[in-house]
């Protein structure tokens, strides 16, 4: 199946099985805004908890914060968002569709990378085990041409964005002969900047209200609380502040399901360090955050680092962790060395002293910051994309049977174990409910008795439930149940009182944390 078709099936699956719904669907929806259903919200909570525990429980010097969404408007002046938080937009005059100019170029680069990989793939088949990818890319004329085109275009794009050269950006789009995906024409407008922040008004009377902004990131709430947390927690450098919260961006080109939304959730940690040590900590967190991802078991080959060609106004180093989504490698998390930009600017704009007294150095200074910032919604999409599968099985009548299954890491699954009476009679429902009552205080359970047990297995496979327990006549005789494992579909008989013992090693959150 083509990756595009697989992704289309996944989005339909998310709605059908209660993971993600279009927001306000009763009123024909709201573009790029989504609601999480009964299974999606549990998956979201589990991923959030995995991140939170990895940050705060496994690090003695990282504490949590929950700052407000509404903040003083001068905060966004100090952070640079009022002047620098813009996207370069371009319209196609024929389709009337609007695009991010930089994304058009990035998509063009991605297509060239796909062409390069096809050339590499053909060569790998031809040469077998003797194939040397690096040598091929540097010696084959076609591969060399593609790689040079990719590198030169990426460098040129970074320079244009850094220099805010909008005319040059349009010229690049024209030189690359990029067409509108809708109209197929190259009839472009000029490129112009668009600020992404949502503005609203705070006050009881509109004439007297002050204009404020919905926060476009959660990080600034951490920076303005740096002194509060440091003093009340008696924190010593280096230390971190972690936060999970909503952020809002007026994305004009929102697409690819929940990958780019106007209302989204971030999981951010700002790590405050002594000046001069920031690059050491940048490398540490770069590696530590990749290990967090790899512990999920989604495949190391699906991740890669992507260093920034264009650095943000606050950074002296930045790298993205990209994941191989069905629509290509895209950013899921960023690690940034933010220098002392934020704390220094808040000190300047507020007129307050924002420094740390280092007893070991016997001096006061403005700490540098290393940031890890991961999108919770993107992480959910990452997990769903990697785990969704359509398995073709042979049925009893010889016909092909398709099993839709989410191979979710058991610790993240919305439901850890489903309790299923074989039939709705002979005391089996009552015995199954007694097992449910015993287990639900220790793990996430689901009880279901409608339809055949085979159909119930398939429904649980579709929502990613790692284990199913079936109560049958033998259960009533000797107290044993059938424990079915999702991925292998293997079954075994175990005593009912040992169910939690059997599933806990994989379903407990600690099973992931131990890998870190």
TrEMBL record:
EC number, as in UniProt:
6.1.1.14
Q: Which CDD domains does this entry report, sorted A to Z?
A: GlyRS-like_core
What residues does the Aminoacyl-transfer RNA synthetases class-II family profile domain cover?
A: 176-414
Alphabetical list of PANTHER family matching this protein: DNA POLYMERASE SUBUNIT GAMMA-2, MITOCHONDRIAL, GLYCYL-TRNA SYNTHETASE/DNA POLYMERASE SUBUNIT GAMMA-2
Q: Which SUPFAM superfamilies match?
A: Class II aaRS ABD-related, Class II aaRS and biotin synthetases
* NCBIfam families, per database record: glyS_dimeric (TIGR00389), PRK04173.1 (NF003211)
Main EC class the enzyme belongs to: ligase
Family statement drawn from the similarity comment of this UniProt entry? Belongs to the class-II aminoacyl-tRNA synthetase family.
Which GO molecular function, any one, fits this protein according to its record? bis(5'-nucleosyl)-tetraphosphatase (asymmetrical) activity
Q: What is this protein called?
A: glycine--tRNA ligase
Which is a Gene Ontology cellular component entry for this protein? Answer: extracellular exosome
What is the top-level taxon of the source organism?
Answer: Bacteria
Biological process terms in GO annotation: diadenosine tetraphosphate biosynthetic process; glycyl-tRNA aminoacylation
Keywords assigned by UniProt? Aminoacyl-tRNA synthetase, ATP-binding, Cytoplasm, Ligase, Nucleotide-binding, Protein biosynthesis
Q: Which Pfam families match?
A: HGTP_anticodon, tRNA-synt_2b
């Amino acid at each position: 199946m083509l990756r595009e078709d697989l992704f289309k099936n996944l989005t339909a699956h998310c709605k059908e099985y209660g993971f993600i719904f279009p927001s306000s669907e009763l009123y024909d929806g709201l573009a790029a805004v989504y609601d999480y259903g009964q299974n999606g919200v549990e998956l979201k909570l589990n991923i959030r908890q995995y991140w939170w525990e990895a940050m705060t429980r496994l690090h003695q010097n990282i504490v949590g914060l929950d700052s407000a969404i509404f903040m003083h408007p001068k905060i966004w002046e100090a952070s640079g968002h009022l002047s620098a938080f813009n996207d370069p937009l371009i319209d196609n005059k024929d389709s009337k569709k609007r695009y991010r100019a930089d994304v058009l170029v990035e998509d063009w680069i991605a297509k060239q990378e796909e062409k390069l990989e096809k050339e590499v793939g053909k060569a790998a088949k031809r040469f077998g085990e003797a194939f040397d990818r690096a040598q091929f890319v540097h010696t084959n004329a076609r591969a060399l041409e593609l790689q040079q085109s990719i590198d030169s275009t990426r460098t040129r794009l970074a320079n244009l964005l850094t220099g805010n050269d909008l005319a040059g950006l349009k010229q690049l789009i024209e030189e690359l002969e990029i067409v509108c995906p809708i109209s197929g024409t190259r009839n472009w407008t000029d490129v112009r900047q668009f600020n992404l922040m949502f503005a609203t008004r705070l006050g009881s009377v509109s004439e007297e209200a002050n204009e404020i902004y919905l926060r476009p990131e959660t990080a600034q709430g951490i920076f303005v609380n740096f002194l509060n947390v440091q003093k009340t927690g008696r924190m010593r450098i280096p230390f971190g502040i972690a936060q999970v919260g909503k952020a809002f961006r007026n994305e004009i080109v929102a697409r690819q399901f929940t990958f780019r939304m106007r209302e989204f959730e971030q999981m951010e940690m700002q790590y405050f360090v002594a000046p001069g040590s920031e690059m050491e900590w940048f490398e540490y967190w770069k590696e530590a955050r990749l290990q967090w991802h790899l512990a999920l078991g989604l495949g190391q080959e699906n991740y890669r680092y992507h260093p920034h060609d264009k650095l943000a106004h606050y950074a002296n180093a930045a790298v993205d962790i990209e994941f191989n989504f069905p629509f290509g490698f895209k950013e899921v998390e960023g690690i940034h060395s933010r220098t002392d930009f934020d704390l220094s600017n808040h000190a300047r704009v507020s007129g307050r002293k924002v420094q740390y007294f280092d007893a070991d150095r016997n001096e006061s200074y403005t700490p540098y910051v290393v940031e890890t910032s991961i999108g919770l919604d993107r992480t959910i999409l990452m997990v769903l994309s990697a785990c969704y599968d359509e398995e073709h099985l042979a049925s009893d009548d010889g016909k092909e049977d398709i099993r839709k299954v989410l191979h979710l890491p058991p610790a993240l699954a919305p439901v850890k174990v489903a309790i299923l009476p074989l039939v709705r009679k002979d005391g089996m429902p009552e015995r199954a409910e007694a097992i449910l009552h015993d287990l639900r205080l220790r793990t996430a359970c689901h009880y279901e008795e409608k339809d055949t047990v085979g159909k119930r297995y398939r429904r649980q496979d579709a929502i990613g439930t790692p284990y199913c327990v079936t109560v049958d006549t033998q259960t009533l005789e000797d107290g044993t149940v059938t424990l079915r494992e999702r991925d292998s579909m293997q079954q075994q008989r175990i005593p009912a009182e040992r169910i939690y013992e059997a599933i806990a090693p994989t379903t407990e959150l600690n099973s992931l944390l131990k890998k870190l």
